[in-house]
Write a structure and sequence with these properties.
By secondary structure, the protein is an alpha/beta fold. About 50% of the residues lie in helices and about 10% in strands. The protein binds zinc ion. The site of zinc ion has 5 residues, from loops.
């Protein structure tokens, strides 16, 4: 497939700016990496779900990104990602985005026409045997039945990606945007063999896919560390990379095609593994982190004390009261033990430092509370509702907050992943 005018580059990093106040602070982290000789492409991502929850608009995301780029004189590519869009929700983003994450997870396992399954199987008959993929020592057994199963699980999702891609293409013109296909918000991880045939299907739909976000094994909960088997993750990640390299050649997919890790913030136990594996394979990576910046806003406000701290306490109390409502949309990506949430009395007795010790993702700190952290991660709706108080506070304490936002992205995320 032909090359695009704007490319993501080897390393790219998605940041989320829920309230459109932190784009400059976020970009300053990319600048620090650049000064250290590592080029990472910034991507501002916001999902349809997130826009809905806080009644925001992709035009504002674009405006803030452009403003930050201009202010900090960033002279290399950057993108605005329509995150987790479907055929129906994509219209909302067509004007403002140049990166589209086609979320087809809901179509996994949905049926398509029998004749489509049949031609999928026919097309891949040449792989029936023990399939060897360069870089993977074990062989994959492929037979007709396995091909049928993969077709039944994923063909509808692949077709849906094609339908959505063509809608964007018709509006924006070919090759003016980056395409990601995401299948992460589902129950079952995709195996490396499944990924191989999914990529074939995407090539068959003529989608010049730049990044693929599979579901990996283990739990990728919002704002907290990975929960799962690290050795298994390493093996899976290595195999996925090998499959992608092989699929690029087999199906003439874009040379720069790479893996995308969703809910990628705060997965501190995975970063050394990811870093080692991508470096030893000379592979690229896209990582999405969204809510981690919003939590740094809260940390900054708590550190500022006074009115800042009052707002944070209020957001926490309200989040506890509205637990089910706030957690509902994120059920598959959070695990909160309600028993571990501190009471209103306890939190009211805290000073800013105490709150920060509970909230900040520092696993070496005894007071760190991952349950409180996950709840606040999904509690941004409360802040959106009190925006007449919240936004002025973001402005008032902007320096304290910006320092936290930038440090979190650069020191805790970029450094262990890329530097
Ligand atoms: Zn995702």
């Amino acid at each position: 497939m032909e090359n695009k005018s704007k490319t993501l580059g080897k390393y790219s990093f998605g940041v989320g700016d829920r309230f459109s106040h932190q784009a400059q602070a976020q970009l300053s982290a990319f600048q620090k990496a650049k000064e250290q000789g590592v080029q990472i492409t910034p991507v501002w991502n916001k999902s349809y779900r997130e826009h809905q929850i806080i009644s925001s608009n992709p035009r504002e995301t674009r405006r803030q990104a452009d403003l930050a780029i201009e202010k900090l004189r960033w002279d290399t590519p950057y993108f605005v990602d329509a995150d987790h869009v479907t055929f129906d929700s994509v219209d909302f983003f067509l004007d403002s985005s140049d990166f589209f994450t086609l979320d087809v997870a809901d179509y996994i396992g949905k049926s398509t026409l029998d004749e489509n399954i049949h031609s999928f199987v026919e097309k891949h008959k040449r792989y029936v045997s023990e399939l060897e993929i360069p870089g993977i020592t074990e062989k994959f057994i492929v037979d007709i039945k396995r091909l049928e199963q993969i077709g039944q699980s994923y063909l509808k999702a692949v077709e849906e990606a094609g339908r959505t891609y063509r809608k964007i293409q018709a509006s924006k013109g070919s090759d003016q945007f980056v395409v990601e296909v995401s299948m992460d918000e589902t129950d079952k991880p995709q195996t490396p063999l499944e990924i191989f045939f999914i990529l074939s299907g995407l090539a068959g739909e003529n989608i010049p896919v730049d990044t693929l976000a599979p579901k990996f094994s283990g739990r990728f909960n919002k704002g907290v560390d990975y929960v799962g088997d690290l050795d298994l993750f390493r093996k899976e990640f290595e195999q996925d990379l090998a499959v992608i390299q092989y699929a690029i050649k087999e199906f003439s997919l874009p040379e720069g095609l790479k893996l995308s890790v969703h809910s990628g913030s705060d997965k501190f136990s995975l970063y050394p593994i990811i870093k080692e594996v991508i470096q030893s394979n000379n592979a690229g990576l896209h990582i999405k982190t969204a809510g981690t910046t919003w939590l740094e806003e809260l940390i900054g406000l708590a550190l500022a004390g006074g009115e800042g701290m009052e707002i944070v306490q209020k957001i926490y109390h309200e989040s506890v009261q509205r637990f089910d409502e706030l957690c509902g949309p994120y059920a598959s990506v959070i695990d909160i033990n309600k028993q571990n949430l501190p009471s209103e009395e306890v939190v009211n007795s805290w000073d800013g430092e105490s709150f920060v010790r509970a909230l900040r993702h520092d696993q070496s700190c005894q007071d760190y509370n991952p349950d409180l952290r996950q709840l606040l991660h999904v509690g941004y709706k409360v802040a959106a509702e009190m925006k007449d108080q919240y936004y002025p506070a973001l402005d008032k304490y902007t320096d304290t907050i910006a320092e936290q936002v930038s440090e979190n992205i650069y020191d805790r995320h970029m450094k262990p992943l890329f530097l």
